[in-house]
């Protein structure tokens, strides 16, 4: 896989970043005051191409931290490092309007700058308060509930003597599938163990094997939904 190791690193102004995006078709995003070029990565991105395209020219620190594991941030992202933003822009770099989002009004992006700052502050407060940590005690109760629903669905089905027993078994099974989706959702966001391989295995086991829904397909669409919520053009949840 190609990366940017052979490209000369430098410091870029906001205007230079915009010029490279428009004239050179560079897919540049800003993460922690560093510029990353994702042209060779976009087709491999597990979250889909739209997720990257909506971040072109923007400060994507909050979004990248929210959707990626520490392993990815420490080992994969540096491969696409392209340079730094100039020192005077460190604290007040205004995100550009990505080419895919030209239909937005400029005043909406002015509000977007405020939201970025507020999101960073809120995320930091939540993090130091340990609210992002998973409560495994609560998950143990969830597992007990899943086992009980599975047991009753199987028990009633095996001992069925009338059609109503099958209806009751189906109700238990439906409740089980319904409840399992919440755990699959958490696994898709890497919110259980925060380890990519383990949470992906949990998501695949519940979604693909038990539920018949691809967790990869779900992540591809759900991540876009979270990035461009209620965008009539690109939000798959619309």
- For the termini, the CA-CA separation is 35 Å
**Number of folding domains?**
2
Low-confidence stretches: 103-107
- In percent, how much strand structure appears in the residues? 5-15%
The gross shape turns out to be elongated
Largest sheet: 4 strands, mixed
Q: Largest beta sheet: what is the strand line-up?
A: 1-4-3-2
How many DSSP-defined strands? 4
* CATH class wording of the largest domain: Alpha Beta
Helix and strand pattern: EHEEHHHEHHHHH
Task: Figure out the total of helices.
Answer: 9
CATH architecture assignment name of the largest domain = Roll
At the fold tier of CATH, the topology name of the largest domain is Flavocytochrome B2, Chain A, domain 1
By CATH, the superfamily of the largest domain comes out as Cytochrome b5-like heme/steroid binding domain
Rg from Cα? 22 Å
Structural class: alpha+beta
Please give a handful of descriptors for the protein shown.
2 domains; 4 strands; alpha+beta; 238 residues; four-stranded mixed β-sheet
Write the layout of secondary structure elements.
Elements lengths: L9 E3 L1 H10 L4 E4 L2 E4 L11 H5 L7 H7 L2 H7 L4 E5 L20 H23 L7 H23 L4 H26 L7 H16 L3 H13 L11
Parallel strand pairs: 1-4
Antiparallel strand pairs: 2-3, 3-4
Helix pairs in contact: 6-7, 7-8
